[in-house]
Amino acid sequence: MSSNNVARVLVVGGGYVGMYTALRLQRKLKQELRQGTVEVIVVDPEPYMTYQPFLPEAAAGSISPRHVVVPLRRVLPQCKVIVGEVTAIDHDERRATITTLAAEETGDGAIEVAYDELVLAPGSVSRTLPVPGLADVGIGFKTVEEAIGLRNHVLEQLDIASSTRDPAVRDAALTFVFVGGGYAGVEALAELEDMARYAVRYYHNVKPEDVKWILVEATDRILPEVGPDMGRYAVRELRGRNIDVRLETRLESCEKRVAVLSDGSRFPTRTLVWTAGVKPHPILAASGLPLTGHGRLKCTAALQVDGVEHAWSAGDAAAVPDVTAEQPAKPDEPRPLCAPNAQHAVRQSKVLAENIAAAVRGGPIVDYAHKYAGSVASLGLHKGVAHIYGRKLRGYPAWFMHRAYHLGRVPTFNRKARVLAEWTLAGLFKREIVSLGSLENPRAEFELAAGTGRHNEAS
Asked: Average pLDDT, whole number, for the chain?
């Protein structure tokens, strides 16, 4: 694929930055896209964008999984969407190598795409540590598949505990260990604990106090984004629900389904959820572009890769100077950077699209400037914490603000209406507590029938 006198913008990643940037470019360059003088290509391994703040509610059953994702082809009809993974970038030649599903099936190899402007926004991946047994038993929490899989797994453990007389098996099934006290870990644990506490009322031999929930955090506080006061409140709230919060504690091992902590505690468990941070996507290191010591792209305040023309980035992948923060007193001190969170990513994508459109048309570019507004976090149904513009909220007001904020941020009116409808119905009717773990292996029943002839004999 070559440019052929067409200004081609290649967007690597279909997450917050990738999708929002392409969506705004679609509007800003509407005339050029119709005339065929500009092409916008979006490459992502999945054909949808996942709105990650809704993953905990999807895991708890408050939101349907299909309403947590936004199909890229529907919202980007004027862009070309390639479902594949960028494996190499030669920015000197302005070419990217992409491995697609078809290439994997046919063995024809990867395709090459030429571009004029490059937007690197692949997001981040889970950061794992060399903990013995983690790769074998750990469960992540970054994708909708992981969220729904975890929901099914938790309900399945209640079924196992209810149907066994072995105290060791029962205890392990009813022990849930979460590692990481950031947004993902705390919100996932809080929502699932709410769901499980509701679900056990339908089990004749399982009580809420039988279920153990353990949160392991290596630092001295959780939810650092909402400030120390709200972080301490969150710890008190969780402990008030009999959740064992272990601060300044690390996971040492989880071999043979036994979680061993740095304080000497040992917990037999069938569930270990790893949410202990993220790291830059590997494609950044393979791009040959300048990186920081933490592996993120060095960027200017205008969201250009520092010292490189026609390369742009934002979000998790980019180290963008925060021009609104207090600058260091000495010139050799590091400048403050924008936090790699959704609040900055969504706003950066707007400026990024404006600057790319200006680059295509030959106009001036501007710097990104946004003063951090604060953070909100859910601690389960009707519970939350928030620190917004210096004001601290907790309980129901914080939970309501959390929902209102994310309802306003989720893309497309279609998704907003569907999510609001599901929240309304969830308030009127009881929770759904069914486990659909068989969805993860849909051919299991057919394979069993084909291999044994059981269904023929039964008929």
From this structure: 89
